[in-house]
Design brief:
Shape: elongated
Distance between the termini: 75 Å
Number of helices: 3
Length: 268
Amino acid sequence: MRSRLLPAFAALALVSGLAHAQKKPAALPPLDLASPDDALLVQQRMQCATDSSAVTYWWQGTVWSRVSGERDRMLFTFQAMNTRACASLNDPAKGRGYRMVSRELVFYTDPATGQVLRTWKNPWTGKEIDVMHVSNDPVNMSAPQFARGPDGPFKMSNLVEKDGTAFMSSIVPLFYVNPLAGDYQENVGGQYHAMELFNFFAPMAQLTNRSLATVPDVQIHWSRVRDSSGLLVLTSSRPENPAPARRRPDRWLALESHPHEGHRHRAR
């Protein structure tokens, strides 16, 4: 009897094992961009990650002059990186939220050789001057962002999709006391006046995939434009791991370091 039962039990165990192996976990529903909580989650995952892990952005670009009455000049190129992390938050009234902290480095480089510049010849004065590279710390959101805030529910109203690729733009006007001007604000216009322009690109399937902690294939194009006595910066950016440089002529090469509070909702 025992010898006849063992094969039967073995066959039953095999069938049970196959049924268990074929049973897949239910797929998570995609994120709904019409939902404020889901839309904010998408933005957080584009900027950083939902599991508090660090995400690094690398970018490179070109810095141009912008002086009234003359053609723009290419001054130098640059390489840069920003490392950031986000803390996920939940509020009974405001819903899902997050806050991002980051720091970044920018190195100005020779357009011909790609080498990091130690000195730079000013094309207006002919003087050879020392180059001060950028070390911005911190580059943080000034306050957490929530799904429901004082301006109403969070929306990604400027996001459009074409052939499976999501596109989103962001415009960040800047107007604040110039930290380089010291006691001579009135002599240099009184305020630092510029605008940053961001275009984000990412696969729509990654944006709405609820199981991803971050969007691995975000591409960013970033431009920064100053007034006529300032600069024009054109650059493209991509994440090196899984989503901005600045400059002016003579004294313009002094370190330009300032807070980028809150614009990675861009957020840096």
